[in-house]
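Lab notebook, bench 4. Still working through the backlog of constructs that have no structural model yet. Next entry is a single chain of 326 residues. Request: give me the C-alpha cells for it.
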Amino acid sequence: MIVTPGQLYHRAQFYHQLQQLTAAGLGLVHALEQLLRNPPAASYRKPVQITLQRISEGFTFSESLRHVGKWLPEFDLTVIEAGEKSGRLDACFRMLAEHYTVRAQLVRQMLADLAYPVFLYHFAILIFTFVRFIQSANWLAFLLAGLLPVYAIVGFMIYAAQSDRGEKWRAWVESVLHPIPILGSGRRSMALARLAASLEALISAGVGIVDAWELSATASGSPALRRTVFGWRPQLDAGQTPAEAMSVSSGFPEIFANQYATGEVSGKLDDTLRRLRVYYQDEGTRKLHAVAQWVPRLIYIAVLLIGGYMVVRFWIGYFNQINAVL
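Model written out:
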C-alpha cells in the first residue's frame, strides 16, 4: 500500500541492469535470466519468471509483462512497448531508471525530513498524556484525540494516492491538489514529462499519431490530460493536426503547445518531444524537491505551535486551580 524509497530504488535498479545488459549486446531473454539469478530484490523473481515463461510461449516482452498483472504501471508498459517496436529498448530502460531514481530520492528526502517533526509530535502527546494521567482527567481520551485524527488523515492520504484507484477518484484527487501552490504545478509538470516521453517513444516506433497521443495521455497518469486528448478525436478525424487541436485547447501550457507546433512543422518532432520531456521533468523535480523540503518544515512549525498552546493551557489551568484553592 505504501511505496517506499527502497521499492523505487529496486525498480530503478531493475531497469538499470536491463539497460546495461541489453546495451552490452546481451539478448533480452538472457538479460532476464541474469536478473532472475541476481534480482534487485527477492520479490522480483516471480514476475521475471512469469515474464520469461510468457516469452517462451510466443508473447512479446511487453505482452508478457502485462500478463504479470499490476506489477508495472501503465507508463512503464507504454514506454517499454514503444521501445520494443522501435528497437530502442536500451534507451527506454535508461529513461525509466532515471525516472525512478529521481522519485526515490524525493520520497527519501521527505521521509528523512519528516522524521524529527513526527517524533516531536508523538513526544509532546505522550508527555501531556502522562500529565493528564497524573491528574487522572481523561488521559486516555486525550491520547486518542491527539493521535487518532492524525492517523486517520494520513491513512486517507495514503489511500487517495494509490495509482490503481478508479478514473473518477483520481480525477477528484487531481482537482484537489491542482490549486495547491508548487505541488499542483509540480505534479502537472511530471505528467507532461511522462506524456512527452511516451509520445516520443511511440512516434519513433511508428505508431499512428492519433493512437500515440491517446496512449501517451493514458500513460501520463493525469485524468485531466487524458480527457483533453480524448476530446480531440472528432477534430483529428476531421483532418486537424494535434498542434491545431492543442492551440484551441486550455489543457496544455503555452510553452508545450508552441514547441510541439514548431516540431510538427519542422519535421523534428522527436527532438522537440525529447527537449520537452527534459524541461518538464527538471521543472517538476525542482518543484517537488521544494515541496519535500517545506512540508516537513511546516509540520515542524505546526507541532511547535500546538506544543506551545498545550503548555500555555496547562499552566493556565494550574494557576486557576491554585487561585481556586486560595
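Notes after review: The CA atoms of residues 17 and 175 lie 37 Å apart. The chain has a mean pLDDT of 83. Flag for follow-up if needed.
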